[in-house]
């Protein structure tokens, strides 16, 4: 019996939910059910759908029902640190939502509903610490976004439509396996070269042009004398690689 009870998680009653409503510093009503050991979305809280904020973070939820759309006044929704593998299409009906935290879950690109692009008032979106290998270009429709967090995923590129959102001030894409730019770029030649070379005699140059050419020749000779003869590339043993394995970070967080 004990094992079965543990799998069901803590049962939230309407009375418990009502007692969990807090008033924020700016006067909004927040239903705080974080760190309650909840494994199933408590249907009783649908009777409290007039709250302004809903916190279900740090639980063990695997699914959010489509009925979440009944929280029409919701401006702030925190679902971070659960076991969510998908999101309901109804989340796109939360037209007043300004803050959405979905970090530290098990969301994949495939299970991100297209309806997310309906959240026209969304200003902060956190999708860090998930299993995303791509970002839908449709998120570029969220013109009010100011902060987007995509850290610790499996991303190899960020769509231009997202990176160039008109009001975007902060984009966190740390610890994603982006291609190393140093492997794609050609080695930088320390000596600038020209495609066409014109030869003239010194007597045909004016004084200023002659002086400029002599100065350039002196610089070139100086550069040749300072370039080391070794063909080995510089070694920086203490330099950290810009990419890390997002998977390892996720395991540590979980």
Automatic annotation (TrEMBL):
Q: Which UniProt keywords apply?
A: Cytoplasm, Leucine-rich repeat, Repeat
Q: Polar residues composition bias: which ranges?
A: 224-247
Q: In which domain of life is the source organism classified?
A: Eukaryota
The Disease resistance R13L4/SHOC-2-like LRR domain extends over 69-200
Tell me which Gene3D superfamilies the record gives: Ribonuclease Inhibitor
Q: Does the keyword Cytoplasm apply?
A: yes
Is Iron among the key words of this record?
no
Q: Where in the cell is it found?
A: Cytoplasm
Transmembrane stretches, by residue range?
none
Q: Which Pfam families match?
A: LRR_14
The cellular component terms of Gene Ontology attached to this UniProt record, alphabetical and capped at eight, are:
cytoplasm
Region Disordered, as annotated, extends over 224-254
* Role played: May be involved in the regulation of spermatogenesis and sperm maturation.
**Protein known as:** Leucine-rich repeat-containing protein 18
């Amino acid at each position: 019996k004990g094992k079965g009870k543990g799998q069901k998680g803590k049962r939230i009653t309407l009375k418990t939910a009502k007692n969990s409503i807090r008033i924020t510093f700016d006067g909004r009503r927040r239903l705080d059910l974080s760190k309650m050991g909840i494994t199933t979305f408590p249907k009783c809280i649908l009777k409290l759908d007039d709250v302004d904020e809903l916190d279900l973070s740090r639980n063990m939820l695997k699914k959010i029902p489509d009925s979440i759309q009944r929280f029409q006044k919701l401006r702030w929704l925190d679902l971070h640190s659960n076991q969510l593998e998908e999101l309901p299409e109804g989340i796109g009906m939360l037209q007043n939502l300004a803050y959405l935290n979905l970090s530290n879950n098990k969301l994949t690109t495939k299970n991100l509903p297209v309806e997310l692009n309906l959240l026209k008032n969304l200003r902060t979106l956190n999708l860090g610490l998930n299993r995303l290998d791509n970002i839908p270009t449709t998120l570029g429709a969220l013109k009010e976004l100011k902060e987007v967090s995509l850290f610790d995923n499996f991303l190899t590129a960020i769509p231009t439509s997202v990176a160039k959102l008109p009001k975007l001030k902060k984009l966190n894409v740390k610890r994603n396996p982006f291609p190393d730019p140093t492997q794609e770029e050609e080695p930088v030649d320390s000596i600038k070269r020209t495609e066409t070379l014109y030869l003239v005699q010194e007597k045909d140059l004016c004084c200023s042009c002659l002086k400029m050419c002599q100065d350039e020749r002196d610089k070139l000779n100086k550069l040749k004398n300072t370039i080391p003869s070794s063909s080995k590339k510089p070694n920086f043993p203490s330099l950290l690689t810009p990419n890390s394995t997002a998977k390892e970070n996720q395991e540590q967080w979980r």
